TrEMBL record:
Keyword Transcription regulation: yes
Gene Ontology terms for molecular function: DNA-binding transcription factor activity; sequence-specific DNA binding
Organism of provenance: Aminobacter anthyllidis
Pfam family, one: HTH_18
Protein name: AraC family transcriptional regulator
Keywords carried by this UniProt record: DNA-binding, Transcription, Transcription regulation
Sequence intervals crossing the membrane: none
Presence of keyword DNA-binding: yes
The HTH araC/xylS-type domain, residue ranges: 212-311
Domain of life: Bacteria
InterPro entries according to UniProt: AraC_XylS_family_regulators (IPR050204), Homeodomain-like_sf (IPR009057), HTH_AraC (IPR018060), HTH_AraC-typ_CS (IPR018062), Tscrpt_reg_AraC-type_HTH (IPR020449)
Length: 317
């Protein structure tokens, strides 16, 4: 993960560092702050493979452009997929400005001149290789700017999966390649309109991305003793049976994943100095039956919760 913020560089060098960071990691752009004295930014970029990058950028109000001299200098032709937390304005060369609503997706080809005006915003960005994307979604070459509503078919799955990659980047080259493949498949689904035929072509990636979102939702709600597959399905807008099938493809069940995640949480708590009682830790981890907790804990770790807690106390003495 590469990072840069205004706290890292002297005020006089802010724009130079910003232009260099964005050009090396995402795109060739030129920025002009609305207020140079108070201008601030915080950027991060993570590389998956080839020319595929996921990142975030937090800006105070700024104007930006990709002018013709930069087009001629760097020759970039890839696509930038962006999602903003605020409404903003973008204009392609020779066309009237377009207002993009917060949460909508834009996909812009770097081979075209453009300009944009951003209020203070958090921007999520994915840089996608043009040839690789076009092979999956030929429609992408029909225009330089694609504006996709946040409610479009597949949009929430694409943005949710990209968010997961930013929050928890995959380890190792193989993991990065697989995540990148899923990302292109999901982007193609959205660009092609989310048709049934397109969805069928990318079904493995759809399932993998959805399962990762389900797991992330489960981990966020882990300590809720009432958490169920039905509750997760409602939040994800899918059926409980579909979730169960996704887990079955990994050789486990929803309940097994939930149990093991709660056991891992309890084990971590028991290993901490000054841990609470075993019963308190069990209930805080989402278990509502102490005898069941003790039994499955021993099966998982080969020791009782009391033994793990005692060992942690001895280490502190």
């Amino acid at each position: 993960m590469q990072r840069l913020s205004t706290l890292d560089v002297p005020a006089r060098d802010r724009l130079a560092y910003l232009h260099d960071f964005v050009a090396r990691h995402v795109a060739g752009l030129r920025f002009r702050p609305e207020d140079a004295d108070s201008f601030a930014f915080n950027l991060s970029a993570y590389f998956l493979d080839g020319r595929t990058t996921v990142g975030t950028a937090c800006y105070s109000a700024v104007f930006g452009e990709r002018p013709k001299d930069l087009l001629a200098a760097d020759g970039r032709q890839d696509y930038l997929l962006t999602i903003h937390t605020s409404d903003y304005e973008v204009a392609m060369e020779g066309k009237s400005p377009l207002i993009i609503k917060a949460g909508d997706i834009t996909l812009v080809n770097e081979g075209s001149a453009m300009a944009f005006a951003l209020p203070a915003t958090l921007l999520k960005v994915v840089s996608l290789e043009e040839a690789r994307l076009a092979a999956l979604a030929p429609r992408v070459r029909m225009r330089a700017l694609h504006h996709i509503s946040a409610s479009a078919a597949g949009a929430s799955l694409l943005t949710g999966y990209a968010d997961l990659l930013r929050a928890a980047a995959p380890d190792g080259e193989a993991g990065r390649r697989l995540a990148s493949s899923h990302l292109y498949d999901l982007a193609a689904l959205v660009i092609q309109g989310g048709s049934a035929d397109t969805a069928e072509q990318v079904r493995p990636s759809l399932g993998a991305a959805r399962l990762e979102l389900v797991k992330a939702e489960m981990l966020r709600q882990l300590t809720d003793p009432e958490l169920s597959v039905a509750a997760i399905a409602r939040r994800q807008g899918i059926t409980p049976r579909y979730i169960q099938r996704l887990f079955e493809q990994e050789g486990l069940t929803f309940s097994e994943f939930l149990r093991d995640a709660r056991l891992d949480l309890a084990r971590k708590s028991l290993d901490m100095p000054g841990a609470a009682t075993v019963s308190a830790i069990a209930f805080d981890a989402g278990f509502n039956d102490l005898s069941h907790f003790n039994r499955v804990f021993r099966q998982r770790f080969g020791a009782t919760p009391t033994e793990i807690k005692a060992a942690a106390l001895r280490r502190c003495q």
